[in-house]
Amino acid sequence: MLTFHLRKSWSRFGPRLGRIALLEVPREEYTAGISIDETSSVTFDTPNILVGTSRGVVPHLSRDHCSSADAIRWINVPFESFMEQTPPIPMLQTGPDPLRTFLGFDKRKHIVSLCLRDPMDTREMPPNGNTYVSALCVRGVRKVTLSEWREYAYKLKPDIVFALSDTPFTAPPYSQKRVTKSIERSVSWLADMLRPLKSSVPSCSPSVSGRLSQHPLNVFVNMAGGTSIPAREVFAHSLAEELHGPDLEAVRPIKRLDDGVVGYSFHLATLRGSVPKPLGPHRRNQPNDVFQLESPNMLQDTGKLIEVPTPGHGEVPTSSPLPSSFAESPVPSDTASLLQASLRQLPEGKPRLVTGVRSPHEILKLIRDVGVDIFEADLAIAAANVGVALDFVFPLPPDHGPLEECKKKDVGHNLYDHVYARQYGRLSDCLAGAAESQSQFPTSLPICPCIACSPRSPASHVYHSKVDVQSYEETDRNGKVMYGPPRSRGYLHHLLHTHEMSAHTMLVAHNLAVLDRFLSGVRDLFLGGDGDDTGEGEGKITRFAVEVNRFESVYDESMEVLRMARKCWHKVDLARGKGRLGREKEKQALIEARGVSGG
After folding, report:
1. Does residue 555 sit in helix, strand or coil?
2. Torsion angle in degrees (nearest 10) through CA of 399, 403, 404, 407
3. Can you give the C-alpha Rg of the chain in angstroms?
4. CB neighbours of residue 179 within 10 Å
5. Which end of the chain is more exposed for a tag (fewer CB within 10 A), N or C?
6. Helix, strand, coil shares, percent, the chain, to 5
7. What CA–CA distances, in Å, run from 333 to 301, 328, 355?
8. Per-residue pLDDT tens for 63-91?
9. Which run of H or E residues covers position 190?
10. Is the model's pLDDT at 231 over the cut of 80?
11. Is the distance from CB of 445 to CB of 424 less than 8 angstroms?
């Protein structure tokens, strides 16, 4: 059972601090209304990150890496990657916790969520139907019906499940009929997911503090409506309005659809306005276009749509009367306005999750303007795919400022660049390794706990035979973890150019640790650095806004370092595989020809 405690919130759409806890409670107990012991198995503070997977695997990381990485707490599994067989392989797993057992994640440390489609995959897809969603696996497109998705969710028992949503993956603009159909289908599919099992008792335990839902599944709903603010408001109204008649009977004991929802999700990748890509290979461990700069002009223009009545809003206050159509204004709304339109009518005490962020600047803006709690960490993985070691911190130390000639700093280091071939410093200038002495720095630096900056030796030696005992003294380790010196930029540069997989492993671990420390800095700013969330709210909000402006003035929001790294990755990638020898001969002939002409 998932709980969310909103520790501090100064406004509906502003920075806020929360705590997510997954309680170790058998589903049968709290479905039947039996009192339970509130013992949490996984707890973490928000804002925080979610890590996506490919076929249940965090790109480039093993299960041991995931268990040792402090930054990985919430893992999302797109189920479409398992759909090539019937039934999908995870469905054959038995036991009380099938999905977690099959994937091998630690129940004491990780929250595992299940969605059908990868939220970062925006390739063009066949349209959905009234009773099925088109999903993509290695053998092509599969139709997943509502009953099948319910069966998968109840059989695999993930900690969190995302309800199906009718998101168009065809080229915009979308007609009024398509937008309306998307809203109606999404509402209907959510209601189907919230239908109780025949064997369940129609009562739920209300005694658990912070409980978000009256449903045995922890369901997140994707907020539909596309780039139309009125359409988003209509969808939100459908969640908040009280049900009657057959609709109420179908989902009892809940009275509103929102009562069965534990949180709200937003997929920014579908709001970018880019034309969907043709079907083809898509892997999370390959470079993608996640680093394109966010701009309001990139949002989809759904065109002029015919007026459609918008339901009333009850006593929910709004800044201006709501338009009575799904038509968008001539100037496209920014991302924050779209998210606010979806959340204005809904309760504040539920977590807000966003996927598809493209820069740390966008993360700060969504915290400041919307109050987002969870961000998918695809940015960190995408940067590692092209050899970029992220290097930024929040809030900025007093001595941090723009480079000479007012040039902004890059958010990371392109380790494919030959300038790093003979650099033997650690990966990050903002974070230190655990083995480094703080006295060598002008100011104290936070510790980066990743396997690249703080490589650890096990607390005890691994003995492969009885003879190995003689190789070590009993007091060598004394049960203590030993930290080694940080891996250098030159070492990672060498690994990248020799196509060593360990380079991307260390970069993913490092980038996730940087992003985790970045959001930890956001939380510390509001807690005063000592865990105390008391104090003047207005002063903290003002300071946060100032620090966000400082961050934007120092770091390059265009993410140019990632574009350059992608080009370098492509050149190095061409140095292997089919046709490599032919390309090398052509290159050598060109060099010799230039030498002769120059001589």
Report:
1. strand
2. -140
3. 25
4. 25
5. C
6. 35, 15, 50
7. 10, 8, 19
8. 999 999 999 999 999 999 999 998 999 99
9. helix 176-193
10. yes
11. no
In the numeric block, the tokens 């400082």 are attached to 550
**Could you give the dihedral angle defined by the CA atoms of residues 358, 359, 365 and 367, in that order, rounded to the nearest 10 degrees?**
90
Tell me the sheet residues that pair with 133: 144
Distance from C-alpha of 76 to C-alpha of 53, rounded to nearest angstrom = 6
Q: How far is CA 292 from CA 286, 408, 566, in A?
A: 16, 18, 12
Please name the residue that has the structure tokens 């003035």: 553
Mapped onto helix, strand or coil, the DSSP state of residue 379 is: helix
Q: What is the band of 259 on the pLDDT scale with cuts at 50, 70, 90?
A: very high
Q: How is residue 345 annotated by DSSP?
A: T
What the block records as the tokens of 381 is 């993985």
Distance CA 238, CA 342 (A): 11
Q: Are 180 and 310 spatial neighbours (Cβ–Cβ below 8 Å)?
A: no
CA–CA separation, 317 vs 382, rounded Å? 40
What are the structure tokens assigned to 528, written together? 């005063």
Give the rounded distance of the alpha carbon of 38 from its chain centre. Answer: 27
388: exposed, middle or buried (Cβ count in 10 Å: 0-12, 13-18, 19+): buried
* 560/550 Cα distance (integer angstroms): 19
Neighbours of 543 (CB within 10 A): 13
What distance in Å separates the CA atoms of residue 176 and residue 167, rounded to the nearest whole number? 14
Q: What is the pTM of this model?
A: 0.84
pLDDT band at 277 (very low <50, low <70, confident <90, very high): low
Which residue(s) pair with 142 in the sheet? 135
What does the alpha-carbon distance between residue 519 and residue 48 come to, in Å, rounded to a whole number? 6
Tokens, residue 581: 């020898």
Length of the chain: 599
What end-to-end distance do the CA atoms of the chain give, in Å?
A: 76
Within a 13 Å sphere around the CA of 220, how many CA atoms are in the beta-carbon half?
26
Between the CA of residue 480 and those of 306, 483, 593, what are the distances in Å? 69, 10, 60
Residue (of 546, 543, 548, 540) closest to 518 by Cα position = 548
Which range is least confidently modeled, 240-254, 311-325, 469-483, 567-581?
311-325
- Band (pLDDT 50/70/90 cuts) for residue 317 is very low
Looking at residue 597, its pLDDT comes to 55
Residue 190 · residue 138 · CB < 8 Å: no
Instruction: Answer yes or no: are the C-beta atoms of 393 and 383 closer than 8 Å.
Output: no
> Which H or E element spans position 249?
helix 245-251
Q: What is the DSSP string of 554-575?
A: HB-TT-HHHHHHHHHHHHHHHT
Q: Given the DSSP bridges, would you call strands 412-414 and 388-390 parallel, antiparallel or unpaired?
A: antiparallel
